[in-house]
Write a structure and sequence with these properties.
- The structure is a single chain.
- The chain is mainly alpha-helical and about 475 residues long.
- It folds into four domains: about 140 residues, HUPs (Rossmann fold); about 150 residues, 3-Layer(aba) Sandwich (Rossmann fold), CATH 3.40.50; about 50 residues, Helicase, Ruva Protein, domain 3, CATH 1.10.8; about 100 residues, Arc Repressor Mutant, subunit A, CATH 1.10.10.350.
- The chain is about 45% helix and about 10% strand.
- The strands form five sheets. It has a three-stranded parallel β-sheet, with helices on one face. A three-stranded antiparallel β-sheet has the order 4-5-8. A two-stranded antiparallel ribbon has the order 6-7.
- Helix 5 packs across helix 6.
- It is elongated, with a radius of gyration of 32 Å.
- About 35% of the residues are buried.
Length: about 475
């Protein structure tokens, strides 16, 4: 068997949708496993909606995910001569014909047909008219067989197709001279030698007509694999207005590309009970035979779990590098330093996203005098009964001979021994409010050790002077 050739062909009319990203990932992983060639083609024939900014967003999303391509990007807007030549060849071979029916005429006939309860397909009025190139404004239609089935064995859905008589002679060139999607995509896939066409299940119904085009162009069709659509956690189709669906959204929210790829590859595909897949494992294990037919569910909780896993596993230097832009976005003035490395190490076990980590790091970066206190946390934990113990602890910490987790824990225990029945949590929470401004932080001993003696004591002293005790 010759080397396989696959392609991903996005339309640059917006962002990179997670459905498109998963399709690209499936193509990429399958091709890498079989040692083939992965082609990137930009389908930008929609002149009104296609923009350079959208193309850059799509390509940037692929690059961020680590999905590289071997050829391209090719652009359909630069391949018009190829489509025109194919249409002329079909006309010359009487496999297509010119149609002068206007949209209004076709709509009138369609409504009359539907009114009888029948299904409308083009009625072939111009099929035998032999209109020449001088016939005036016209579209071009493909002659589709009237009998037989345009069928194929889909690598995911199995035997599929449609009776030829149900399709009709569809338009392949508009009256303005521009090619239809079906013509352009088939001509491109033939020219690029695509052997395996892996795309979303929303294209399943397009395939029979495209098979008719392959036959008319005397070309063997590729193998088709239509992958299930992605639905939300509620089982409903994803909505651009309701759901986060762009790769850029997840990147900006602080998800790592490794987590995104792992999440996407598992939406509709499985390999036993395995949940964590490295890029190398995706390329060695992904197989279309294991792609399910049912719609794949995008579970945001699973993405959070995966992202936290990869944050925990990330090398320190890479974690700091990834974290820096989120610190800037959160207004947390930290730059690369040993202190930031320590903050990242402390927070990585408790952060689902880089954005969350940047927010949690604020207590360390902010100046002591500028720390703000969460009002609810103060009301809940800064009680009059515990203030004397906090004051005692401040003194213990200022006198501690060493400054490490063990010494800090010893200071807490010394104070608790002087206050009968004082649970660690009852002391730790007001201290946490005093030094971080909130009731949530890493372990209190580790937090104080990271802040350092001087800053910790200064913040406790300030809280004792400024916070009202409930």
């Amino acid at each position: 068997m010759d080397a396989i050739r696959t392609r991903f062909a996005p339309s640059p009319t917006g962002f990179l949708h997670i459905g498109g990203a998963r399709t690209a990932l499936y193509n990429w992983a399958y091709t890498r496993r079989l040692g083939g060639r992965f082609v990137l083609r930009v389908e930008d024939t929609d002149r009104e909606r296609s923009t350079a900014e959208s193309e850059a967003a799509v390509l940037g999303g692929l690059e961020w995910l680590g999905i590289d391509w071997d050829e391209g990007p090719f652009r359909q807007s630069e391949r018009g001569d190829l489509y025109a030549a194919a249409i002329e060849r079909l006309l010359a071979g009487d496999r297509a014909y010119r149609c002068v029916c206007t949209p209004a005429e076709i709509e009138e006939r369609r409504q009359a047909t539907v009114a009888t309860g029948a299904k409308w397909i083009y009625d072939g009025r111009c099929a035998g008219a032999n209109h020449g190139p001088g016939c005036g404004p016209h579209a071009v239609r493909l002659r589709v067989p009237r009998d037989g089935k345009l069928g194929f064995d889909d690598l995911v859905f199995g035997p599929s197709g449609q009776d030829a008589r149900e399709i009709g002679d569809m338009v392949i060139r508009r009256t303005d001279g521009s090619p239809l999607y079906h013509l352009a995509v088939v001509v491109d896939d033939i020219a690029m030698g695509i052997t395996h066409l892996i795309r979303g299940a929303d294209h399943l119904n397009n395939t029979p007509f495209q098979l008719a085009l392959y036959a008319a162009l005397d070309a063997a069709p590729p193998l088709f694999a239509h992958v299930p659509l992605i639905v939300g956690a509620n089982g409903k189709k994803l909505s651009k207005r309701r759901d986060p669906v762009s790769v850029q959204h997840f990147r900006a929210a602080g998800y790592l590309p490794e987590a995104m790829c792992n999440w996407l590859v598992r939406i509709g595909w499985s390999h036993g009970d395995q949940e964590i897949f490295s890029r190398d494992e995706m390329c060695s294990l992904f197989d279309l035979a294991e792609v399910q037919r049912a719609a794949g569910q995008a579970d945001p909780g699973k993405l959070d779990w995966l992202n936290q896993h990869y944050i925990k596993e990330l090398p320190r230097d890479r974690l700091v590098r990834e974290l820096l832009p989120f610190l800037a976005e959160a207004g947390t003035p930290l730059g690369p330093s040993a202190g930031l490395e320590a903050v990242a190490d402390l927070l990585r076990e408790r952060s689902k996203t880089l954005a969350e980590m940047a927010q949690r790091a604020h207590f360390f970066a902010v100046a002591d005098a500028a720390l703000r206190y969460d009002a609810d946390a103060v009301r809940k934990h800064w009680k009059a009964a515990v203030v004397p113990a906090v004051k005692d602890l401040t003194g213990e910490l200022s006198r501690a001979g060493a400054w490490d987790v063990a010494a800090i824990e010893a200071a807490f225990e010394a104070v608790r021994a002087r206050y009968e029945g004082l649970a660690l949590g009852k002391l730790a929470q007001p201290v946490r409010v005093a030094v971080t401004g909130s009731a949530a932080s890493p372990g209190i001993f580790e937090t104080l050790a990271l802040l350092g003696r001087e800053r910790s004591v200064a913040r406790l002293t300030r809280a004792l002077a400024e916070l009202p005790a409930a």
